[in-house]
Amino acid sequence: MGDQIGDWATHIARAELSCTLPRRWAHTQGVAHRAAEVSQVLNQDASLLVAAATLHDIGYAPRLAVTGFHPLDGARFLRDEHRADERLVQLVANHSFALLEAEERGLREDLATEFPLLEEPLLVDALVYCDMTTTPDGDRTTAQDRVAEIRSRYGDDSVVGRFIRRAAPEIFASVERVEAALAAQPR
């Protein structure tokens, strides 16, 4: 895939997020930066991770928010308007345990049918790591602090609050697996 897909992803994300949702754009840039940092554990999928990180929240763009569930809206946009790579679309659709949130929203079957989970655990974990160790402003954080921030921002009784409480153990496990893979890399 190489740098071309990264440039394309940045162009799309900037066009959809930078003016309408500047804070989401800052988060997106931070997640993409984190992906570039950890991509060495993925070898040939490094550029795919960076592209997925860059596009993971594209579904928040106001013109794309059809269902109000950003992973599904973003994946449909990438598939339908851009004929994006299937693995990239699956990563965007399922990032950070989106299936659990889809369940809370009554959209589990839609998400699972249209965009099956990618059976590449380290790649999936790496995207979770990048998203869940980046603040809304694009800064580095811990997964524990990120989950606490999401709960605080949305409230525990909201759809997102219920989802993030359910997903937290899985998020923390993904982050630990990526940290272990990074630690095992030769220096």
From TrEMBL:
The source's domain of life comes to Bacteria
Q: Spell out the Gene3D superfamilies in the cross-references.
A: Hypothetical protein af1432
Query: Which SUPFAM superfamilies does this UniProt record tie to the protein?
Result: HD-domain/PDEase-like (SSF109604)
What InterPro entries does this protein map onto? HD/PDEase_dom (IPR003607), HD_domain (IPR006674), HDIG_dom (IPR006675)
Domain HD, by residue range, is 24-109
Q: Spell out the Pfam families in the cross-references.
A: HD
UniProt protein name: HD domain-containing protein
Q: Which organism is it from?
A: Streptomyces pakalii
What lineage is on file? Bacteria, Bacillati, Actinomycetota, Actinomycetes, Kitasatosporales
